[in-house]
Design brief:
TIM Barrel; 8-stranded parallel sheet; 14 helices
Length: 312
């Protein structure tokens, strides 16, 4: 299946595995890339030397294309990019910031740069900066989201209409039906997070994976809404945050105090149900079993083809 994204990234299928913190290590990225999609190592939960270790392991394990996701708000982002350049990574996804001051050295090193956006203004800036493609991520997605609360259904066609570079749809996509819908909206690939988090190769804790399987349609909530919206599964910690927000409001300082205590690691990597953040998207209600990553790619493509046939 050929699109501008498959040609750009040299992959068989227009499916991108999201670079999720504490989930997307080299084993998951390798499995996805070997299946013909694009695996991404999530640098957001890695120190520079750990990122280097993951990069060296995946390069030794596969010749397939893979990428790295870098959240630009990281305090050590320059060190992360140094490792990426030294290890000759050729595909970089950036998020949570403006890629402007980082793009020149990446481009000079032959990197393809893709930036994650939450509105049209950000998409236009990414295009102007020189990004090769855009991920338009709707508010259904797990983890941190845009303050405009634009859903995938509304966001993707507006971004696709506004830019000339190819668009990857993200947020709420966990099966082939969602993939087909994204293409109808103007996307040329999909980025899938939560579905890949519940795979055999995901580095997440088994309890976190099981909670994805058990989640129903209304089991995620948004907290820190007026600062940096965060979508996660309802659990005792999220209930505490929600209660405090409703009774006292939430300042940025208080949010940082709560969020900075390793909440993502506690929930996703350590399986701490009481004190952790179990970040996942609304698509968790569609995930019913833990599968090998290659099987997820295969199912996405077969479901896509079946959904397309039903429309003809």
């Amino acid at each position: 299946m050929q699109t501008r994204i498959t040609s750009l990234l040299n992959i068989r299928f227009p499916i991108i595995q999201a670079g999720m913190v504490w989930v997307s290590g080299w084993k998951l990225a390798r499995a996805v890339s070997d299946s013909g999609a694009l695996g991404i190592i999530g640098a957001g939960s890695m120190k520079p030397e750990l990122l280097r270790e993951h990069l060296q392991k995946i390069k030794a394990a596969t010749a397939a294309p893979f990428g790295v996701n870098v959240p630009l708000l990281r305090g050590d982002v320059e060190e992360l990019f140094k490792v990426i350049l030294e290890e000759n990574v050729t595909i970089v996804f950036t998020s949570a910031g403006h890629p402007g001051r980082h793009i020149e050295p990446l481009k000079n090193n032959g990197c393809i740069v893709v930036h994650v956006v939450a509105n049209v203004k950000q998409a236009l800036k990414a295009q102007e900066t020189g990004c090769d493609a855009i991920v338009a991520e709707g508010f259904e997605a797990g983890g941190h989201n845009g303050v405009d609360e634009l859903t995938t259904l509304a966001l993707v066609p507006q971004v696709a209409d506004a830019v000339k570079i190819p668009v990857i749809a993200a947020g709420g996509i966990a099966d082939g039906r969602g993939m087909l819908a994204a293409f109808a909206l103007g996307a040329e690939a999909v980025q899938v997070g939560t579905r890949f988090a519940a795979t055999a190769e995901s580095s997440a804790h088994e309890l976190y994976k099981q909670k994805i399987i058990e989640a129903k349609d209304g089991d995620t909530i948004i907290t820190y809404r007026n600062i940096v919206p965060l979508r996660a599964l309802k659990n005792p910690f999220m209930a505490q945050v929600q209660k405090e927000e409703s009774e006292k409001g939430m300042t940025r300082e208080r949010m940082m105090e709560l969020h900075a205590k390793g909440r993502e690691r506690k929930g996703i990597f350590e399986g701490d149900w009481e004190e952790g953040e179990f970040e996942m998207g609304q698509s968790s209600g569609l995930v019913k079993e833990i599968l090998p990553a290659a099987e997820v790619v295969k199912k996405l493509m077969s479901e896509y083809e079946e959904a397309k046939r039903k429309l003809l």
